[in-house]
Fold this protein.
Amino acid sequence: MKKYDKLIINSIGRMVPTEVNGKAQIPFQGVGKHIPEGRKYAPKISSCANFPSDGNKLVGSLKEALLKAGLKDGITISTHHHFRNGDLIANQIFDIAAELGIKNLVWFPSASFECNACLIKYLEDGTIHHIEGSMNGSLGRFTSEGKMAGMGVLRSHGGRYQAVQDGEVHINIAVIAAPTADIFGNANGVDGPAACGSLGFALVDSEYADKVIVVTDHLVAFPCIPWQIQGNHVDLVVQVEQVGIPEKIVSGTTEITKSPDRLFLAELTARFCEVTGIIKDGFSFQSGAGGISLAVAEYFREIMIKREIKARFARGGSNKYLVSMLEEGLVEYILDGQTFDLDGVRSMRENPNHVWTSPFTSYNYHGKGNFASLVDVVILGATEIDVNFNANVVTHSDGVLLHGIGGWQNCLFSKTVILTVPLFRDRIPVIRDEVTTICGPGELIDVVVTERGIAINPLRKDLIELTKNSGLPIVSIAELKDMAEKICGKPALPKFTSEPVAVVKWVDGTILDTIWQVQE
Amino acid sequence: MNNRIATAGNNGEKDRSDCFVSLELTPSGGIQIDLSSKVKALYGKTILALCSDVLQFFGIENAILKVEDKGALPFVMTARIEAAVKQLIDTDKEFLPEMLPENLSSSTRDQRRISRLYLPGNTPALMLNAGIHAPNGIILDLEDAVGISKKPEARYMVRNALRSINFIDAERMVRINQIPAGLDDLDYLIPHHVNLILVPKCESATQIQQVNQRISTIQEKSGLKNPVWLMPIIESAMGVMKALEIAQSAENVVAMAIGLEDYTADIGTQRTAEGTESFFARCQVVNACKAAGIQAIDSVFSDISDMEALKENVLRSKALGFDGMGCIHPRQIKVIHDNFAPDEKEIENAKNIVLAFFEATEKGIGVVSLGNKMIDAPVVKRAHRTIDLAVSMGKLDANWVENFKK
């Protein structure tokens, strides 16, 4: 299988391969330009006759399940990341494969975390050929150094659903670690010791994979209610001692930042939304799980209370701050894609207005619409933004791949997209002449908020008009870049070899940009 | 040749925007620079060139310089290297970063000093964005916020910060060390357009005069004559007793502050939220300031997590007659501004008095009256001050008189 073939320039001016891991690729054509034809991919028909009539799909071990599901060289295995850094199952799959001498697997996770760094040894010994999914931290660095046999493929959450649905990725075995399940394979994330809230990222895997294995440490009698994953899609069920480490499942970035500079940024962002009338009765918003985003939601809350405004819904990762807004009646519904703390899990379990969603409903680009474009405002971050508003979330300015795309690309379809970023991090300017990797085309990015000024995309004449005489520090994006360089100095460009190591897919499955091997 | 290894800077796990350097002079072998940096890919070359420049500037030809960089800006790195160099060689030369034109500005005697943010003088990460929080003043602190062993290197850091960091509209203040040690700090500050010097633990007019003598000597040498204001800090029983003498000690004393941590220790008590123990001292300082016609500035409030308690503290402070307060965290600034600012009732009263004054002036009547009550001149003056403050803090429209008439 060829790692890549023939590079061409796509419509946003980036050099991209036309073949990746032996599969032909379509270069990015522009936003909304690539409209596929044909039919969706479909899994084979299954028959009740082949499944036990008592509904008992339990097998003795994960190894037995994997063998029954047809574990062999070269297949694609998927996992989900709802357990974040507390995941205990994904690594075990590859321990088993390595022990059996299986080679050239493709790992198709919905995201990776630092707890998966131990898989590097399997990338080195050939058990895993390559990863299609986010390569975070150590895995990203490994990829950037050109050490992975195949090309990494980075997709958004919606892009992952699209890739499976459109038949770009054929999942042979999906392993769905579930906090609660029954013997039939119905499963949910709201109960059990490893409760993580939603299981939405595993939905597409359950619907399209050849074989689906549910692994749980909390087996309940049929029926497991609610069934976020339907047992009718499930082949095999495994009971294990533990699927995830609870304190690592709900950890990390779920506290509001204490940094005064970041709080300042969050407050400025909220003020922008107030001044421009984005915060109005019945509006909707999405803000991520990072420290700044959480703080933005808190400032939204202050403004909403002061002005007696209620939001119709909030999208996104839920946490205690959003949950309290729901419980206070400031937000009518939470449409939750990912649950970040135990308050979120509790709320999802108990409150019918806290609704679990999936990348299909929220983000999938090849469907009859999705929720992302219905959201009034979304507040996101970026590692770099260029003077044309193009933004990067996967690589750092030194060229190293360190993050996944998550739902970031999908959220760019919101009515107003705000990137809230510090002007510089330590000495590294965030606003650049050109981003290292394009993850989002500038035409979709409306506003960049930094602590030293707010730049509005010239395409958004309405926002420019609304902020006149507002007292907000409105500047051009070029001025922001100059300010950053005046403080930090003009940075050198990262040095790459001519070897591509990964590609960034756009939400429609086309290739937006290439990540290159960093030069030592 | 001094053959020990000199070090400067910070390299703790949480330190950012800083670097740690160690320098060893060697008999031969030229300049060897060992750089580890989180921004090496972006700035590696310029950092190496900068390091060489500094060593060359000080005439060092053979040395081993090790730099552990955590994203230090150039002026931080040169301050660190210079601090190391000066432990090893005796020289009057200074490696000065370029002076930002905006940092040549002077401040005025009676400018607003409601909030002033303390920044540890040897911690560059906290300085870089201080201005965005819009305190009236920033204080680069060479005194209590810097450990004894770090005092010498902090002087280079503060000097370079005065030249290189745009603190936006904040008055640039430095708290020097206690007199007499603090006098030597002035050499690193006065030529670099510092606006105001805080003189800690002040106990006599003589100390202020010593400071002024040193300032004149430095200014004569440098030829710079920009105003340098002084703010003595009263932090002891003796200081409290000498408050008036200190407040009146020199023409350039524009404000006087009280420091309650040291004061309460000095009188052998604990600082409480209610502040009964310091009631006398606070009143004494306020009175001395008002008698001398300068601003009275209250002590910092040290619980940075409790904004409600800070608010109460500010309101008490304002009621006693203070004009401002120190802050140790940027989040305190807004609370201090909002609560020192005149409230609705004060603004309403002041508006009525000022309008009555305008009316009296228009009619050519010397006496201002409101209803059938005569208004004395100091009250009219205070009303004007309240209005000015309310306008400048965005609590009152600048065209309020016209709007009123409509």
